[in-house]
Amino acid sequence: MSSGSKAGPGGGNRPLPLDGVRVLDFTQVMMGPCCTQMLGDYGADVIKIERTGAGDLSRWSVGEDADGGNNPVFASLNRNKRSVTLDLKREDERAVVLRLAETADVVVSNFRPGVMERMGFGYEALRRINPRIIYASGSGFGSDGPYAHKGGQDVLAQAMSGAMHRREDARHPLSVYPTALADYAAGMHLMQGILLALLHRDRTGEGQEVSVSLYNSMLAMQMQEAAMWMMRGRELNWAAMPLSGVFETTDGAVVMVGAFKENPLRVICEALGLDDLSADPRYGDLDCQKAHRSELQEIFRERFAGNSTAHWLQRLEGVDILCAPVMTLGDALDDPQTACNRMIVELDPTAGGPVRLVASPIEMSAAPFEVRHPPPVLGEHRDEVLAEAQRDGQAA
């Protein structure tokens, strides 16, 4: 475990918030697994149900680590879980799921609507054997409506929610945002729904269904922009603000946010060594600055291009203008702030080499994040979990 990590395997003895909560995890790829990983990070016993011989799609669909034991994509989403392989076409293997569901607190899936029902594991079927069960599902577009049975995927949600259409300048080509925004947002909303349902059950004894969709999560992420459009009929585009932008320097780039001051243009000009452009009627107020944004941006670009990133950061920070260097992901991972925040966890190496992962972003003073289980090899815990299920059945 590296010095910058929060906790390695078995790194803590304090009780965690979700100790004693058992989760049956049918999820794969990203939306569902990032939800169940967070539950596992804070104590839940997450039993990952995987297809015999194949497992989660992310074990083999990206990269060359077919068994998933050291596949970075799979590993990033599946720590603190136990893997059980089952052939759900076999009646005896389906019976195992039902036995596990009798004592489970939460069942999570992110198949298309109707898939769990066709396998015999829909909410109504499971609540008959366990009325307290919390049945959480994620989908692309929701359980009904014109797109309910359309395949859901992050990029499709970006496109159909309007997010992909919104960009700094309409003249720029449309493009895919390179990080899975919809998957992560929906996964976190799914986790929030599960935690709320657990709290509700503690107070009432009732289980319930929880559902989220990629589509709804992307709409929710645009709450400010959506309200502006619905209430005023106007676009709200933070990337197109006239005094903000990304500007190349002699050795990199700086992002600047010219806002939150009475006259930010005057202060920016002071930092950049320019005459006060706010005294020019063309740029005298925000509406004028919006109308002449392209001219202002060109002035800024020419000025930033004449010196280094460090120079301009010092100048801008000296007058309290929000700014930052534009870093690569590798730069950010190596940054001292990342180490200070203990955002990298390093596990014992596997046969495929070291396992280094981004830790949980949630800091809890009395219940810190820890890795109790490294990302599992496919079916690693089958015998262990099936033996537990048999004991639980005999005890009942």
The best one-word shape is: elongated
Number of helices: 16
Gyration radius (Cα, Å) is 25 Å
Number of strands: 11
Amino- and carboxy-terminal Cα gap: 41 Å
CATH architecture of the largest domain: 3-Layer(aba) Sandwich
Largest sheet, spatial ordering of strands: 3-2-1-4-5-6
Mean pLDDT reading: 93
The number of domains: 2
What is the element string, with H for helices and E for strands?
A: EHEHEHEHHEHHEHHEEHHHHEHHEEH
Kindly name the structural category: alpha/beta
Sheet with the most strands? 6 strands, parallel
| Residue runs with pLDDT of under 50 for 5 or more positions | 1-5
The helix content is 25-40%
- Looking at the structure, the CATH topology of the largest domain is Rossmann fold
